[in-house]
Task: inverse folding
């Protein structure tokens, strides 16, 4: 059974229709990426999965319907969203940001171990634990956003452009950690990226989205070999 | 010198009450960016509830805590039933709702209890504590109660997960939803807390100004001034502002402008702060790119 399944998703902002019947699915434990140019509907798809935009169509997570549910309830099912713009609580400290990630959890002791675990992944955050999160650099805030999502102990992470605005070295480090998390903790990931080369290296499967529709899908290797993708998105 | 000291101390006592009401205003402002004009009437209504309970023979402190609990529930219910439907409306609609609440609470109280002024008991002894000649027991008690309320609130916001969630929801509702915080209920909780704080303030001020449906009019104005002086989005600032306004009002009223013009101090402060330093002493300056 697929972990996540979306069929025939439609969404609109006011009069402007953004998704025109997107369908995709992903298996548990895998990393899937949605590729596409600006305005293709990638971010909207992620927001739709979290109940942050009104949609038509069916969405299933672990076999349960999630369309029409409130964001808070979807999060409680184990979907953590690393949003576009990082969603930092700017006036709270780094550690408070992380603790908020575990807000819905009852296992206090495990939360403390998880805090140490994410500090292990991102030692920079430990150094900045008492600092106001709004004063962190862009890269640090992205690490914080990923860590906050991990604090939920999610089954599925939705990552919206994790590489956006980061220096290439930091992107490499971040993607390395994402891979580790996926392999060691079996967290499934749905990654939206404009940096197609990086995303295809990370992901097992890819969907190519153009103007709110899936136009191509397959394993990352197959997609990478596709001539049209190579010319338009990989640039060689 | 003695007279001045007396006025300053008395100012601190009422200042604590202004600080509480200012804090209630700031709490709702932080979460919704609206100033709740009905905050004072809500406190007044709560105080009448306490009066009824005490008159029915309930011991003071039992009535006190029952009133605080009742006010909390009342605040939550008002948010759910009255404020929720206009949550995303333009600011003027919300203001009209607040004013309607103010008028309704005021008239309903007058209708139930009549507009005749009543005395409200103080839980503190009539003789001054420790034989001091500067402050009455009630003034000292009111300051202590205010301090306890402020400390409890500080502890709640600083050290509990729910307090953290409230701070988070106030500054970033969307991210809050993404970590699973039920933002709608957090707003209702904020209203409940504000109403509970207001109830304490009402019960502390009633023995001084006497109980009548219009008793909080002046207090609310001073609390506005306090919140603005401190910075409308700063809880610590609101407390500081409350004490400052209390002392200023008392000292200026006694020695400079006379009691009749006391309320003008609040108005001058409001206008002065808004023109000279709109963010107050401790508030953040918000800059928007255009």
Result:
């Amino acid at each position: 059974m697929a972990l996540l399944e979306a069929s025939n998703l439609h969404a609109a902002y006011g009069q402007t229709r953004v998704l025109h019947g997107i369908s995709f699915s992903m298996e548990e434990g895998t990393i899937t990426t949605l590729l596409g140019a600006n305005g293709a509907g990638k971010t909207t798809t992620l927001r739709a999965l979290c109940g942050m935009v009104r949609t038509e169509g069916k969405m299933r997570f672990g076999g349960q319907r999630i369309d029409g549910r409130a964001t808070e309830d979807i999060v409680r099912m184990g979907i953590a969203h690393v949003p576009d713009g990082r969603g930092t609580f700017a006036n709270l400290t780094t550690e408070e940001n992380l603790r908020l990630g575990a807000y819905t959890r009852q296992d206090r002791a495990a939360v403390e171990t998880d805090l140490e675990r994410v500090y292990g992944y991102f030692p920079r955050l430990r150094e900045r634990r008492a600092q106001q999160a709004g004063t962190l650099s862009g890269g640090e805030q992205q690490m914080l956003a990923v860590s906050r999502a991990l604090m939920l102990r999610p089954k599925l992470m939705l990552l919206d452009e994790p590489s956006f605005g980061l220096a290439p070295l930091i992107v490499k480090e971040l993607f390395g950690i994402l891979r580790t998390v996926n392999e060691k903790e079996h967290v499934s990931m749905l990654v939206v990226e404009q940096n197609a080369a990086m995303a295809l290296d990370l992901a097992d499967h890819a969907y190519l989205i153009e103007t709110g529709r899936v136009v191509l899908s397959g394993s990352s290797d197959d997609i990478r070999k596709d001539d049209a993708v190579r010319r338009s998105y990989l640039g060689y | 010198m003695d007279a001045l000291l007396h006025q300053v101390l008395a100012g601190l006592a009422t200042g604590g009450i202004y600080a509480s009401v200012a804090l209630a205003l700031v709490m709702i402002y932080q979460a919704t960016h609206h100033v709740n004009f009905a905050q004072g009437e809500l406190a007044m209504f709560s105080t009448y509830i306490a009066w009824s309970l005490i008159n029915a023979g309930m011991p003071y402190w039992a009535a006190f805590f029952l009133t605080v609990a009742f006010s909390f529930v009342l605040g939550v219910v008002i948010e759910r039933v009255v404020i929720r439907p206009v949550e995303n409306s333009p600011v003027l609609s919300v203001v009209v709702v607040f004013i309607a609440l103010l008028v309704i609470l005021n008239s309903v109280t007058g209708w139930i209890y009549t507009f005749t002024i009543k005395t409200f008991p103080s839980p503190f002894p009539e003789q001054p504590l420790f034989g001091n000649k500067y402050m009455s027991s009630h003034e000292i008690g009111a300051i202590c109660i205010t301090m306890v309320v402020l400390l409890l609130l500080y502890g709640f916001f600083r050290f509990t997960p729910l307090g953290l969630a409230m701070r988070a929801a106030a500054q970033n509702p969307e991210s809050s939803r993404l970590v699973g915080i039920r933002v709608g209920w957090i707003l209702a909780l904020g209203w409940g807390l504000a109403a509970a704080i207001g109830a304490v303030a009402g019960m502390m001020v009633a023995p001084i100004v006497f109980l009548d449906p219009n008793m909080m009019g002046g207090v609310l104005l001073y609390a506005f001034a306090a919140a603005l002086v401190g910075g409308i989005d700063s809880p610590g600032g609101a407390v500081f502002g409350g004490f400052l306004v209390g002392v200023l009002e008392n000292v200026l009223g006694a020695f400079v402008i006379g009691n009749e013009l006391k309320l003008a101090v609040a108005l001058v402060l409001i206008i002065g702060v808004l023109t000279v330093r709109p963010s107050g002493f401790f508030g953040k300056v918000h800059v928007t790119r255009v």
